[in-house]
């Protein structure tokens, strides 16, 4: 197997690694986007519950100023307790969704770094191959010039038979 074949084989292997890294990155993008949407929905739900609780408190406090028996106050307090529990549970969901979103963001960053690293390695290998080919071409040109020079020196009268003659 020649150097060119080894280069092509190594390049093909790197392209396969790059393709897998890009696929993993694309999957991480999808997961992160889904988790971001879940977080945003949970955050909006928590905000809606908090706003609704605040409105409910304001309405009933105005009602209590007008009239309010003990039974109504107890019902109000029980309901506010359950609403507070719901707000707390929703706040927990927001925290969990945010943590999942952050983990997926970090995973996405890691996968993007891997794609960049493999791409950079491929670029480096291509530059090395171009430099190697350039050196080989230069060597071949130098050898040809050297042969022509030796042939010219060995010919009587120093005539180079390879040089074109114009008539």
Would you write up a description of this structure?
The protein is an all-alpha fold and 167 residues long. Helix 1 packs antiparallel against helix 2. The chain is rod-shaped and about 130 Å long.
Number of helices: 2
Proportion of residues in β-strands: under 5%
Structural class: mainly alpha
Mean pLDDT across the residues is 88
What is the first-to-last residue Cα distance? 48 Å
The largest sheet is:
none
CATH overall fold name:
Helix Hairpins
Please give the structural blueprint.
Blueprint: H1 3-66, H2 70-154
In short:
With 167 residues, this protein is mainly α.
List keywords for this structure.
single chain; 167 residues; mainly alpha; Helix Hairpins; 2 helices; 89% helix; 0% strand; rod-shaped
């Amino acid at each position: 197997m020649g150097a060119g074949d080894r280069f092509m084989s190594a390049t093909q292997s790197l392209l396969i690694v790059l393709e897998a890294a890009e696929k993993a990155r694309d999957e991480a993008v999808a997961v992160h986007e889904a988790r971001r949407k879940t977080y945003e929905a949970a955050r909006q739900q928590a905000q809606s519950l908090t706003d609704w609780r605040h409105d409910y408190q304001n309405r009933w406090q105005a009602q209590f100023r007008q009239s309010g028996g003990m039974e109504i106050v107890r019902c109000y307090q029980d309901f506010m307790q359950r609403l507070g529990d719901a707000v707390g549970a929703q706040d927990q969901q927001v925290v969990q969704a945010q943590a999942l979103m952050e983990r997926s963001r970090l995973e996405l960053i890691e996968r993007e770094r891997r794609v960049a690293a493999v791409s950079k390695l491929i670029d480096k290998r291509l530059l090395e191959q171009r430099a190697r080919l350039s050196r080989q071409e230069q060597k071949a040109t130098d050898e040809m010039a050297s042969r022509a020079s030796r042939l010219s020196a060995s010919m009587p009268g120093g005539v180079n038979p390879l040089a074109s003659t114009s008539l």
